[in-house]
Design brief:
Number of domains: 2
Number of strands: 0
Order of helices and strands: HHHHHHHHH
Shape: elongated
Largest sheet: none
Mean pLDDT: 81
CATH architecture of the largest domain: Orthogonal Bundle
Radius of gyration: 21 Å
Length: about 190
């Protein structure tokens, strides 16, 4: 498979340290890599580090002059990041199975499509969260992102007990769900 001329132009720009080419590669691929890392025991800082390492690998390959891209650029970047992350997890002993065997069982293209779709869903969920309003937004963030208990949430938000906080969380989730699905319904029409 030959890559398209736009990707070839981006690679030439990368080799020449063209800021616009580098920013375009970053913009088109970073969210996919971040989703990969976060869904595999990592965080946003890990994603930035791995993406930077991948960009260095890609830069060095392109600068060598003998590099030929035989797949889509996003597939290549995803593959580099995946290998780097698996290596890092193994070093941190957060991941123990044999990495080579894992590569045989998980096709990169399938994983890429799944992560792209998840990334789109996360963007839609972020839009729904922005439209949710207070106190629901803060309550859901406290529970799901900050991992606070219902007792802590009841204290922070002034609910009389954890059960009332739990009921409010449920109502907020239902509002968020409605916003999310209404937005997606409007996108497909």
């Amino acid at each position: 498979m030959r890559t398209d001329t736009h990707e070839q132009t981006l690679l030439k720009g990368l080799a020449l340290n063209d800021r616009q080419a580098i920013e375009t590669i970053y913009k088109n691929n970073y969210n996919m890599v971040q989703a990969l890392i976060i869904h595999n025991n990592g965080n946003a800082d890990d994603a930035r580090d791995i993406f930077q390492e991948a960009m260095i690998v890609l830069y060095e390959k392109v600068r060598s002059g003998s590099f030929e891209l035989n797949c889509q650029l996003k597939t290549y970047i995803y593959s580099i990041c995946r290998r780097l992350w698996l290596k890092r997890l193994t070093q941190l002993q957060r991941f123990s199975p044999n990495v080579e065997k894992l590569e045989e069982t998980v096709p990169v293209e399938e994983q890429l499509e799944i992560h792209i779709q998840r990334n789109i869903d996360f963007e839609h969920m972020d839009e729904a969260m922005k439209g949710l309003g207070e106190p629901c937004k803060s309550l859901l963030e406290a529970y799901y992102l900050q991992k606070k208990s219902m007792v802590e949430i009841a204290d922070s938000f002034g609910y009389t007990n954890a059960d009332n906080a739990k009921n409010q969380k449920y109502k907020c989730l239902m509002r968020l769900r409605k916003l999310f699905f209404d937005q997606n319904k409007n996108r497909t029409v």
